[in-house]
Amino acid sequence: MAEKVQFKIQHTSMEFSDSVVQHRHDAKKIFDRAVEKKIWACTGTEAGGGKNHDLRDALIKEAKDHNFAIHAHQYGEWVAMNRRFLEKFNRGYAGPFIPAEGGKPSGGSHAPRGVAWMSGRSKTKKLGRITVGAAHYLTDKSEQASKTSNEPLIKGIAAWAKKHGEGSGCVFLGADANTNDKIKDVFGGRPLTTAADELKDWQGTHGPHSYIDVIASYNYDARVKAQSFTVLDDKEFVLYTDHYLLQAVYTIAEMRVQS
Quick one: which of 102, 126, 249, 259 is 20 to 30 A from 167 by CA? Predict the structure, then answer.
């Protein structure tokens, strides 16, 4: 029987408007926990490379200091992979599927939206290539102001997952979906499932009754099963960002032959 390997993934939707000191605090604390809890991959948002790039800088520094490879994309989404468990990294960006929107009197400006991703292979287990992405959906306000929707991004996420999930590949996504995951499929019927949906265990991620941040896996990865989904609120894990930290634990069954 194939060995089932525990794969832990952590997601944190960040807050670009926090101060430099707050960004540095959160970046260090996120990676401190990732090392302590033996997290394989971290994802997050709002760490762009524009005028205010201190959060991006802090995440890159802490990733290096904690022995993680990181892809912090200039548009804000970021992924980091633990060198303790993974190697032979690739990285890229799918999209953008939604173009940038400048400032408007009604608000709702936003950066381009797509999927920042990294992939790697386990150092010791026969798991195939593991690809992890990060995405950030538009808020209702941005959708209304720009007269667009998240549909192009959702379609783009599905196409990205299908591409990287072909063959023996396994695909995971962390996202600020800005959509109530408890009452709506954040992927619009496309083949990804959030850990909360898979386990029927929805927990508030932006306050106790706001289920807008997700960790998900690609449906056709038959070797992948969600085991637990945990959200740490400010009483359990204090961060300056206005979102809580998420963790999902999956098992991935080893392949008989490494591809």
Answer: 249
Return the pLDDT at 103.
Answer: 60
The Cα 182–Cα 209 span in angstroms is 10
| Residue 104: predicted pLDDT | 56
Total number of domains in the chain: 1
Report d(CA 114, CA 97) in Å as an integer.
5
The model's pTM is: 0.96
pLDDT number for residue 105 = 47
Asked if the structure places residue 259 within a domain, the reply is: no
171 by Cβ neighbours in 10 Å (0-12 / 13-18 / 19+) ranks as buried
Answer whether 122's CB lies under 8 Å from 5's CB.
Answer: yes
- Structural domain including 35 reads 4-253
71: which strand partners? 79
- Run of H or E residues at 37: none
pLDDT along the chain (259 residues), means of 10: 94 97 98 98 96 96 98 98 98 97 67 97 97 96 85 98 96 98 98 98 97 98 98 97 98 82
Distance CA 123, CA 34 (A): 18
Integer Cα distance of 205 and 66 in angstroms: 25
Give the Cα separation of 227 and 172 in Å (integer): 14
CATH number at residue 115: 3.60.10.10
* Domain assignment of residue 258, yes or no: no
